[in-house]
Write a structure and sequence with these properties.
The complex is a heterodimer of chains A (about 220) and B (about 575). Chain A has about 220 residues and is mostly beta strands. Chain A has helices at about 1-10, 10-25; strands at about 25-35, 45-50, 65, 70, 75, 80, 85-90, 95-105, 105-115, 120-125, 125-135, 140-145, 150-155, 160-165, 170-175, 185-190, 195-200. Chain A has two helices and 17 strands. Chain B is built from 15 helices and 18 strands. In chain B, a hairpin with a 4-residue loop joins β6 (about 195-200) and β7 (about 205-210). The chains are: A mainly beta (about 220), B alpha+beta (about 575).
């Protein structure tokens, strides 16, 4: 507490210095994520947590993040965001949806609606939140609520680039919906570093529910 | 014993044996075949019943799992599982879910670590069973992960299936089960027509379609059954049994026993076999009767032929046998009759031969086959001639003449033959006889001389008879010579006469002619050769030598006279 009071005097100076250091010495890390067969893993989220001088909690963005329902699916499939981010769920389908989550990190329930509901959800706790639709069993999405601003989601090429990293030691964590074995390691970022981290992920089989076919059922099974 | 050795009996036995062998062989082949067929059919049915069982359990599991899956997709249920830590509420909700499944006997909730959270049954299910089940399901990579298995609850057997609770990722597992009881067994039996039993490892019956006594027998027999299939004797009936092991926990298991009675399957076949046996016995009896009748038809004529043979052997060549048959035996009878006719013919010829020639000649003819050719031997030839034939024949009818002549000849011949002579031939009223041919006896000359004297005596007797009949007496002149002559069958191939030829024969004939000559006054003229050949003593009157026609050397002759004893 005493330290904080002292720091507050020099806050503007410190802020300037911090910004300067960020602007001056921002490293990037390219995290390349592959599965055991060497195939790129899309939708994996890599996050870096600073180990020395854990800074203030990252600020949530002003604009809410949207997770839409489109063609009876959630889009995007995985949404990483910092804790405190507000999320809205616009329904772009002609039919109604009922969005819910029973995950401990955030439980909520938005009953059947069309268009954009009045309710929005603030994901305040770090953790993984699984979203579902009560009337469409196959609809699923993930919100990865993080406590660090340094994160990126891999595209189809399996690469996630995290930039603006101050030099120092970091704890790298990777998450994927099908991750079978936890992956985390400590890395060191130097000033103006542009390193690559290659991660091999062991994934569980994807046991997503089959989507209801548009055509009539397949007969006696 | 004779009965057994009879041909007819042998035939009967053979026939009956053959028919018996064929019939009973058929019976046994059919019987064995039926048994093998029944077994094969039952085995097929049992195997297919095992498949049906698997299918039925799978289908039932699927139905219950689907129902439970739909039940836990309910948003309120999901929230219940996530939020409430109150096991009593969860248990009651599970009861509701159980009804929604439409027939599950138990519903249990387990967490992701496979720890039981709540259950509809108060009895704790063996945790290990369910844990393994959930772990298996979790390891199932398909979009529809599930696992099935069996387990015991309170001594009863259940089938379990896992159901994932999704929200939308799997947050919990449900295990839904149905009891394997008599009703289930009955349904299986309805579909497969096979008796179904479930038993534990010790053989205790868990569920069955069998009646209590049969079930008890099966229960006792099960621990001893080590192979997958087998034949058991249950309550008096033979049954085929196949088993499948249903694992129900670490070292627990249940046994599915599928069973069908072999005797039941064989019942229609056995009826046929009984009929076959009946036919076999019937045909055996028929065969016996037929062959017995046939044998008699065979042995009677054969016996008749045997008897007929004895009759023929006895000399009755005229006997004939009639069998009235067209077959081989009929032909045999015909052959027998022909043989009889042949023998009779031969007998007649022999008889005729005997009458025509002396028995010795006949015998030699039969022996030598009436071949031509002869031999040279010393023979005493005797000629006898009737002196006053005209006295005999004058004024008498020819038949009477012949009768008288034959009477004379008969007497003369009798004496000749009595003395071992052979009548060569009759030449009208003359007789030519041979002594020493075809068989020489050593004393042929003596016998010829004795015969001549006997002939005279016999004629004297005949004359006495004639006198008594008022007929004139007869006189005979006899000439005898002994010489080496050729004896044999003379004539053509078809007409033979055993006779002698040579000078000596002529001499005897001439001597006989000389008896008419008044200067000698002899009834019997013999040559010196005969006298010297004779061993015995005869009263003779030498008459010197005489020159005979056709012979250069004179021949010494003598008259033979009867001794007082002969007169």
């Amino acid at each position: 507490m005493a330290m904080l009071r002292r720091l507050s005097v020099f806050r503007p100076l410190l802020f300037g210095l911090a910004t300067a250091s960020v602007l001056d010495a921002a490293g990037t890390v390219q995290v390349v994520m592959k599965d055991v067969k060497g195939q790129p893993v899309a939708d994996a989220v890599a996050s870096l947590t600073r180990l020395d001088a854990p800074g203030p909690a990252p600020a949530a963005p002003d604009q809410p993040v949207a997770i839409v329902q489109q063609n009876e699916e959630f889009r995007p499939y995985v949404t990483p965001l910092v804790a405190g981010t507000r999320v809205i769920f616009p329904n772009e389908d002609k039919i109604q949806h009922h969005v819910f989550s029973l995950s401990p990190a955030k439980q909520f329930d938005i009953p059947l609606y069309s268009g954009t509901p009045k309710e929005s959800v603030v994901f305040d706790q770090p953790g993984i939140v699984t979203l579902g639709c009560n009337i469409h069993d196959w609809m699923k999405a993930y919100v990865v609520v993080l406590a660090t601003p340094y994160y990126a989601k891999a595209g189809d090429d399996g690469k996630a680039a995290i930039g603006g990293l101050p030099a120092g030691r970091y704890h790298l964590e990777v998450w994927h919906p099908l991750l079978a074995v936890n992956v985390d390691r400590d890395i060191v970022i130097g000033e103006r570093d542009d390193s690559t981290q290659v991660i091999s992920l062991t994934l569980k089989p994807d046991r997503r529910i089959r989507r209801a076919p548009d055509a009539p059922g397949g007969g006696y099974k | 014993m004779r009965r057994l050795q009879s041909f007819g009996t042998k035939l009967l036995l053979l026939f009956v044996l053959v028919v018996a062998a064929a019939q009973f062989a058929t019976y046994f082949v059919v019987s064995r075949d039926n048994l093998d067929n029944a077994r094969a059919l039952i085995e097929q049915d049992l195997v297919s019943a095992a498949h049906v069982f698997q299918q039925v359990v799978d289908d039932r599991n699927t139905i219950l799992a689907t129902g439970a899956g739909a039940a836990v997709a309910d948003s309120a249920v999901k929230q219940l599982f996530v939020r409430t830590a109150d096991p009593a509420t969860i248990a009651s909700a599970l009861g509701s879910i159980r009804i929604r499944t439409g027939g599950a006997d138990l519903v249990t909730l387990l967490d992701l670590k496979a720890e039981p959270v709540a259950s509809t049954l108060a009895d704790p299910v063996s945790g290990h069973v369910l844990k393994k089940l959930v772990n298996d399901a979790d390891g199932d990579p398909s979009p529809d992960p599930h696992a099935t298995g069996y387990g015991y609850i309170g001594g009863q057997l259940y089938s379990f299936v896992t159901v994932p609770v999704r929200a939308p990722d799997i947050i919990d597992w449900l295990v839904v089960g149905f009891r394997i009881d008599n009703r289930f067994a009955e349904r299986l039996k309805e579909w497969t027509r096979i008796e179904v039993t479930f038993a534990d490892r010790q053989g205790r019956i868990l569920a069955t379609t069998l009646s209590p006594d049969v079930a008890g027998a099966l229960s006792a027999a099960l621990p001893g059954l080590h192979a997958r299939t087998g034949t058991l004797s249950l309550a008096g009936e033979s049954s085929l049994v196949t088993t499948r092991v249903l694992p129900a926990g670490e070292d627990l298991s249940a046994t599915l026993v599928l069973q069908y009675s072999l005797d039941e399957k064989l019942r229609p076949a056995r009826d046929l076999e009984r009929l076959l046996l009946l036919v076999a016995c019937g045909s055996l009896v028929l065969a016996g009767l037929l062959s017995s009748a046939f044998a008699r038809r065979l042995s009677r004529p054969v016996e008749a032929l045997a008897a007929h043979t004895k009759v023929i052997a006895g000399g009755d060549y005229a006997a004939r046998i009639e069998l009235h048959r067209n077959d081989e035996l009929g032909r045999l009878a015909d052959a027998f009759n022909q043989m009889g006719a042949g023998l009779a013919e031969r007998d007649r010829v022999r008889d005729l031969l005997d009458k025509n020639v002396s028995p010795e000649v006949a015998a030699q003819l039969m022996r030598d086959g009436a071949a031509l050719g002869g031999e040279e031997r010393e023979v005493t030839v005797l000629f006898a001639d009737l002196r006053n034939f005209t006295a005999l024949s004058e004024g008498r009818p020819p038949r009477e003449v012949l009768t008288l002549l034959n009477r004379y000849l008969d007497r003369m011949s009798a004496e000749i033959e009595r003395h071992g002579g052979v009548i060569d031939k009759f030449i009208g009223d003359a007789i030519m006889a041979l002594f020493g041919a075809p068989v020489a006896r050593g004393d042929d000359a003596d016998r010829a001389l004795a015969a001549a004297l006997a002939m005279q005596a016999a004629l004297a007797r005949l004359n006495r008879e004639f006198a008594a009949e008022g007929r004139p007496p007869l006189a005979v002149g006899i000439g005898i010579n002994t010489a080496r002559v050729v004896a044999g069958n003379m004539g053509s191939a078809r007409r033979l006469n055993y006779s002698v030829i040579g000078d000596g024969v002529n001499v005897a004939a001439r001597l006989q002619a000389l008896t008419r000559s008044p200067e000698y006054r002899a009834g019997i003229l013999v040559s010196a050769a005969t006298l010297s050949a004779a061993r015995g003593t005869f009263r003779t009157r030498p008459l010197g030598e005489v020159v005979l026609k056709g012979r250069a050397e004179p021949v010494a002759i003598a008259a033979l006279e009867a001794t007082a004893a002969l007169l």
